[in-house]
Amino acid sequence: MRLPLLRQAISLLVMTMLVWAPQAWAETLTGKVVRVTDGDTITLLVDGRRQYKIRLGEIDAPEGGQPFGRAAKRMLSDLVFGRTIRARVTDIDRYGRAVAVLTVDGTNINAQMVKGGGAWAYRRYLSDQRYIRWEEEARQARRGLWRLQADQIMAPWDWRAAKRRGGPAPLTTAPQSVAMQSAGQPGRQCGTKRVCRQMGSCEEALHFLNSCQVRSLDGDGDGVPCEKLCR
């Protein structure tokens, strides 16, 4: 077979696999998580030899370049990396990834990411309305990304749209952070504190990180300061 014809045949085969992937794949995949790409994407090793890239359904986690992006990745990694999971595949996305709900010992990992403040309910593709309630509960309890300063909280889909446009995107409406409210309180003036042992609370650490730009409080650059206080 000539090379151009071979390339055409391969392209046709790949397209056919993508079209039939939802029918060809089992509804549930069981395997070991060998990679966590970000807060909503993993690689699953099945039968010790087949790898599947899986996008967690129902949720959207902060991108790597966003505040809390690396923290979201670490949160998901703590939940699944190296563990055997079940992935209930519901769709194939436009990038060829399986979209799935993950469970470990009966625990819904997608839900845990939202409940812990590691991801948003992905409203555009949402089929389970409980995720909106779980997101609101995390917001009210100021878990995970909801501890960030208000002007750092942006839905990932807005952030991606802004990046495509090459300009600023509208910020998601969020409650005013305690860090902003406390800026004028005694002992919270910029320049007075620079290390975690001087902080009395996570809110205080967030104030000095975000309002006073004390970057030494966030050693790994994930947007979460003084992690013993802010876990």
Automatic annotation (TrEMBL):
Signal sequence range: 1-26
Keyword terms, alphabetized: Signal
KW Signal (keyword) present: yes
Molecular function in Gene Ontology: nuclease activity; nucleic acid binding
Superkingdom field: Bacteria
Pfam families listed in its UniProt record: Excalibur, SNase
Protein name: TNase-like domain-containing protein
Source organism: Sandarakinorhabdus cyanobacteriorum
